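Notebook, p. 212. Picked up where the previous page left off. The plan for this session was modest: take the two constructs that came back from the sequencing core last week, fold each one, and keep the raw output in the notebook itself so nobody has to go hunting through shared drives later. Recording the first one now, exactly as returned: residue sequence, then the C-alpha cell string.
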Amino acid sequence: MNRSLLDSLRKGGFIFYSRHGEANVGRDLSNLNFQNCLTQRNLSEKGRREAIYYGDILRYLRIPIKYPVASSPFCRTIETAQLAFGSGNVQVDPFWVDVYRLTGNLPSGDKQRILNGLQSVLELKPEEGRNNIIIAHSFPKGIGLGQIPNMGTVIVKPSGIGNGYEVFGQLFLSDLSKLGC
C-alpha cells in the first residue's frame, strides 16, 4: 500500500465492502433465524479480534467513515460491525442476505435481480468527504465482487447512479496495518 492510496481514502468518496471476521463457530442451519445466533455460524475469537483491529486501524489511519455502517442481518456480520464501529453505529440491511444467497443454486432471474441491486448500491456516491462501509459476505468466484477473505475489503469508487463503479482495489488487514507505518 502506498501513501497516495491512503491520501485518496482520506478524501472519501469510496465504498468499503468488507467481509465479516472469521466465523467458524456453529453452522448455518436450514431453519436459520436471524434473531437466534445459535442457528448460524458465528465469529470465532480470532474473528472478534479481527473486527476490533479493523475499526481501530481505520480510525488510526484517519479514514473518514459515514455512520451508520451497513450490515447484513447475520449475527456474524452484525457483531463484526459492532466490534469495529460501535453498537450504535450499525444499521442492518436485509438486502445483504441476497448476496449471501448467491452462493446457493438460484434461478438466473433471481441471481440477476440481486446483481442489479448490488450494482445500484455500488453506484451510489457517499456523502462528501466520507466513505461508506458495508459489512456482509463473500461472493462466489467470478460473481459480484468475487471471493473475499475474512475481513478482506474491496474498495469501490462509485460513479453515480446509472454510471457504474470501479473496483479501486482489495485490501487485507495486513495491508491496512502497513499503511500506518
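Okay, moving on. Second construct, recorded in the same format:
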Amino acid sequence: MTLRLILMRHAKSGWDDPSLSDHERPLNKRGRQSATALGVWLRREGYFPDLVLCSDAVRTRETLDRLNLETEARVLSALYLAPPGILLQHLHQSEQMPTVLMIAHNPGIAAFAAAMIAAPGDTDFRRYPTGATSVIDLPIADWERAKTGNGSLADFIIPRQLI
C-alpha cells in the first residue's frame, strides 16, 4: 500500500503591521492569490487530502482557508515553527487516511520534506519558498510506519509556477 503526504509551506505573509507578533501575521495580497492558486492546482492534479494538519498561526490558517478544500482539518499549536521531529510525531498520530496535508513553517517544513525523500531535487525544493508544496508517496500501510528517507517525490510546485 502507498500513503501520500502533501507538505506545504504557508503562502506569503505580510509585514505591514509591525505591532503584530509573528504568530499573528496574515497573508499579503500575493499570498492570498498564491494560496488560491495552490488549491486549484491540488484539485486539478487530483491531490485530495483526507486530513489536513495545520499550524495555528494566522498565515497558515488563511492559507488553508484559501485552498478551498472540503476535508477535515485540525489546527494544532504544536505545528507552529515545529522542527521535523514534531511534524513526524504528529503524522504518526494521524488516523489511517490515504492522504494527509500538513501546512507549516520554514525551516521545519523544508527540512521535513527533504528528510522524507531519498533525493531532495531542484533548487526551489531546497529553498522551499513560501507556498512550496511537495507531494510525497510513502510505501507504507499506516502513518505510524512513516520514517525519513523512504518516500518518493511525486510532485513539487511553487506558486510562481501557477500565477
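Notes on construct two before I forget. Residues 29-45 form the longest helix (17 residues).
Flagging for discussion at group meeting.
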